[in-house]
Amino acid sequence: MEKNLVENTPGLTEQRNDDSFENIWQELKWRGLVQVSTDETALEEALAGETLTYYCGFDPTAASLHLGHLVQLLTMRRIQLAGHKPLALVGGSTGLIGDPRASGERVLNTPETVAGWVQSIQDQVRPYISFEGENAARMVNNLDWTQGISAIEFLRDIGRYFRVGTMIKKDLVAKRLSSEEGLSYTEFSYQILQGLDYLQLYREYDCTLQFGGSDQWGNITSGTELVRRVENAHVHALGTPLITNSDGTKLGKSEGNAIWIDAELCSPYTFYQYWLNQADADVIDRLKVFTFRSREEIEALAREVEERPFARQAQKALAWDVTTLVHGEETTRKVIAASEALFGKGEISEIDEPTLRGASAELPVAELPAESATVVEALVATGLVGSKSEARRAVKDGGAYVNNTKVDDGEVPVSSGEWLFGQYLVLRRGKKNLAIVRSGGD
């Protein structure tokens, strides 16, 4: 790897915004982080002025955050680096309800489950923003100010400021109302709860900016409107664009393809490979959103993509930066070493079990009995070849490997000592076709 282009990920204390921009608003726009906002001129002036307090909310509807949340965490950090104070809201009450989804009604989780997820997500949020210094972050939980409100108080003191005509025009609400399933009053009320959050944080912390994904824009503006109606004050809002796959589907857990930041739900190996496999057309935009690299560095990587796309320097830089940010430098180095070893450029025996287990999730896998499995059987079982005769030819031609060692006899059972951690074989056909064999079966 070329260190000046790849291994250049600053830790929390070294992170900085790019001083080639006039202000943080201009940098956010250049990075593609502004999809929609309230008055742009007023918001730019506020961010370029004296310290303001802002917040972003994370609902505990799962045990982990994913890449959509990572966009918000890094945006929080960028605005904090510009001198402003973040409030990280983990929604102990809104998590009990869940915002309306386009795909149908949410399953309501128990209070005990949600409370556990609140703690888990708070722990995940903490490493991304600083809780020290003059503009130290503060963690808040909306259950603190909602659990004591009676239904009558909620309807009289908060509900009276909302107009049903406006509420049903919100994009997701309108979509669900016109669907066959419809929309429950529970989910319909979510925007009132989120609006209450902004009002509470405005009153308690003088919070004047909320941001989140643009799909939350209807809920976000419920808050700006509530503050205006109750306090006769104008506050700001910002919606970041949604990160999508090349086919346009949202990268989020509701789509079934989430890239989680919890290593137990998405292994660091899988995480690294996701970024390494970004398309040339997407990688520069991803560098802008998910890394702290400067405009100059990113433009240099853009030239690499144009002039030497085969080197994949931009993808390597992106994968290094984001994996290091989320999982740490030591883990990232292990993942890179494992990736190289799997393809014959290192010692497979040096891969630790968690990394090998993560790699196995990305490769074809077959289970065979450890006592009798042969390489010919393994090649067929994993789909690396179509038949036993083809497997025998691969061995004869010197193109079959077990744990990077060339196989001379494909009909002899693999020895017990070759099973990594007593249960894995790394099978390779040729230079690039990999599979994993796990001990098991009959």
From TrEMBL:
Transmembrane segments annotated in the record for this chain: none
Report the catalytic activity. Answer: tRNA(Tyr) + L-tyrosine + ATP = L-tyrosyl-tRNA(Tyr) + AMP + diphosphate + H(+)
Q: Where in the cell is it found?
A: Cytoplasm
Show the InterPro entries listed in the entry.
Answer: aa-tRNA-synth_I_CS, aa-tRNA-synth_Ic, Rossmann-like_a/b/a_fold, S4_RNA-bd, S4_RNA-bd_sf, SYY-like_C, Tyr-tRNA-ligase, Tyr-tRNA-ligase_bac-type
Q: Which UniProt keywords apply?
A: Aminoacyl-tRNA synthetase, ATP-binding, Cytoplasm, Ligase, Nucleotide-binding, Protein biosynthesis, RNA-binding
- Ranges in a coiled coil: none
Q: Where is this motif: 'HIGH' region?
A: 60-69
- What domain of life? Bacteria
MF-aspect GO terms:
ATP binding; protein homodimerization activity; RNA binding; tyrosine-tRNA ligase activity
User: Where do we find the motif 'KMSKS' region here?
Assistant: 250-254
Where is it found, in Gene Ontology cellular component terms? cytosol
Q: How would you summarize the oligomeric state and partners of this protein?
A: Homodimer.
NCBIfam families assigned:
tyrS (TIGR00234)
Q: Which PANTHER family did the record assign?
A: TYROSINE--TRNA LIGASE, MITOCHONDRIAL, TYROSYL-TRNA SYNTHETASE
What family does the database annotate? Belongs to the class-I aminoacyl-tRNA synthetase family. TyrS type 1 subfamily.
Put simply, this protein is called: Tyrosine--tRNA ligase
Native source species: Nesterenkonia xinjiangensis
